[in-house]
């Protein structure tokens, strides 16, 4: 009699994405965080992304991190995305406790979060936190770049206020109110607090069982580690039927919970079978006109949901109510 193969036991480690506008203080926070990890006897691999001076900043972090991989002359959210993923894959082979990734000041975190969601089975980092470093002096006064700075905050699980001493006390309350309105899920943090949170996660974590029949690892697997984990930024990919009606797609997008801050669906419509359509929802707004995409077998008909506190199994059940029982979450390759 042939025995079923034992399910794979996979050790997880946290990943921390550090985002924030140019000059907000990301590298300063990274140095502080590395220093605060020392009393907890934790080591970190660092990926440092910048347009030109990644190698210069990397020099300032020598002897503070276990490994440092500069990613220069590219933007991690577009041209440097593949390089970033390759570096993250390589980091899985080290013995360090956590992966820290500093993004360049104009990086949009959304493409990164989408990619890590699609590659969740390949990149086994959990929890994935995003720290939004906010320059208290200039937040909301970037002119043309205000929207980008808001995006960097809206996707964050935590935020850090830099240069707060330079802001009059009368304006601090207004700043906190603005942040809370833009992202009510994010927790305020500092380097020492985040280091303690990471230490707690690592100390109580255990290998995750991954099997071929598992639909998706539980989104609540780490809840016992404390309230801060309730803000973990999560995402999931859902495989959809090969052809759908327009009304099904728009109804599904409109009924997604508010915690889904970004959703995409690549589908073939029964009404227009000659091409595929890419539907998007940002916040509560569905893009009025889907993007036309050529028919291809490279990417299956599927949807992606990203946001804080998402339960993949709840999203799966919600999708089945709109698209039928054949909807599923991809299994391990």
TrEMBL record:
Origin: domain of life: Bacteria
Gene3D superfamilies found in the cross-reference section: CobW-like, C-terminal domain (3.30.1220.10), P-loop containing nucleotide triphosphate hydrolases (3.40.50.300)
Assigned GO CC terms: cytoplasm
Domain CobW/HypB/UreG nucleotide-binding: 14-186
InterPro entries: CobW-likC_sf (IPR036627), CobW/HypB/UreG_nucleotide-bd (IPR003495), P-loop_NTPase (IPR027417), Zinc-reg_GTPase_activator (IPR051316)
PANTHER family tied to this protein: COBW DOMAIN-CONTAINING PROTEIN (PTHR13748:SF62), COBW-RELATED (PTHR13748)
Protein name per the record: CobW/HypB/UreG nucleotide-binding domain-containing protein
Species the sequence originates in: Luteolibacter pohnpeiensis
